[in-house]
């Protein structure tokens, strides 16, 4: 699951705790401090990236002639607004991963099973926060500080962009073919059939579903269960896309379907390496 998590993080742009962590800048911090640094960095750095991109674009638009044609038809404010929308779409998986990670917990012991259940110390019923395994979930600092941050982040950063995209296009649905709207927002709807002009919001929700599987899948102890949940997500997304066929070009729909098919096959075949195919030696001896 670790390799699959890293691959999915790399593909979607989500934060990868395998390749990079903001807490590396503060190695002397305690586990709580490192968890706070990781979370705030993952939530706030994308805002800094967007702001920096806008500043660079604003400066370059006044220095280089390559943007003269765009400047002649779009004002700088409009250009920056479009740039901000594009940046949000690119950074959306990273925000979703950071927001959902607040609620990702892992149960270590249950205090009931095992050889010496009376000696199990990590038996908190709600598990432990994956960003700080010394922090019990939904109690103490996690409940007072991080849960409110997580709820706000999920509402604003996970559901805000898809809703904003839908409202942006819905208000202009009667003028999508006009030059003014097409010039500003064509990247949101031109690849889709007219009746599916809002499909970009669905696409973002599909990304959110995949990121959610990646985040909460870490809390499943069984690798088999992790794989099955990921496989179910692939199948559902494929079924939705192939049933609706929102793309104007059939070849794009087929390429998306084949891509999901290959991913599903890869995940399915990986079960050969994690599922036991018979009784273990210890079980045979007992029988």
UniProtKB/TrEMBL annotation:
Keywords: Membrane, Transmembrane, Transmembrane helix. The lineage of its organism: Eukaryota, Viridiplantae, Chlorophyta, core chlorophytes, Chlorophyceae. The keyword rRNA processing does not apply. The keyword Membrane applies. This is TRP C-terminal domain-containing protein. Signal peptide: none annotated. GO terms for molecular function: ubiquitin binding. It comes from Gonium pectorale. InterPro entries: WDR48 (IPR051246). It comes from the Eukaryota. GO terms for biological process: double-strand break repair via homologous recombination. The chain crosses the membrane at residues 40-59, 80-104, 145-170, 196-217, 223-243, 255-275.
């Amino acid at each position: 699951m670790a390799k699959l998590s890293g691959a999915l993080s790399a593909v979607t742009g989500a934060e990868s705790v395998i390749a990079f962590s903001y807490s590396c800048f503060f190695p002397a911090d305690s586990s709580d401090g490192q968890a706070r640094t990781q979370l705030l960095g993952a939530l706030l750095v994308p805002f800094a990236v967007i702001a920096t991109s806008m500043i660079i674009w604003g400066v370059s638009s006044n220095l280089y002639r390559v943007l003269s044609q765009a400047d002649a038809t779009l004002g700088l404010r409009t250009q920056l607004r479009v740039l901000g929308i594009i940046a949000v779409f690119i950074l959306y998986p990273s925000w979703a991963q950071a927001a959902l990670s607040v609620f990702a917990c892992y149960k270590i012991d249950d205090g009931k099973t095992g050889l010496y259940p009376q000696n199990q110390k990590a038996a908190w019923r709600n598990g432990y926060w994956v960003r700080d395994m010394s922090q019990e979930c939904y109690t103490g600092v996690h409940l007072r500080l991080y849960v409110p941050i997580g709820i706000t982040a999920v509402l604003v950063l996970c559901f805000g962009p898809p809703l904003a995209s839908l409202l942006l296009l819905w208000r202009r649905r009667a003028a999508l073919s006009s030059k003014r709207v097409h010039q500003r927002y064509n990247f949101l709807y031109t690849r889709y059939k007219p009746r599916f002009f809002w499909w970009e919001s669905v696409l973002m929700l599909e990304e959110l579903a995949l990121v959610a599987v990646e985040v909460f899948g870490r809390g499943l102890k069984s690798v088999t269960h992790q794989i099955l949940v990921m496989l179910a997500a692939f199948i559902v997304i494929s079924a939705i896309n192939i049933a609706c066929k929102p793309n104007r070009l059939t070849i794009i729909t087929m390429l998306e379907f084949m891509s999901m098919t290959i991913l599903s096959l890869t995940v399915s075949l990986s079960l050969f390496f994690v599922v036991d195919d018979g009784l273990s030696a210890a079980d045979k001896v007992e029988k």
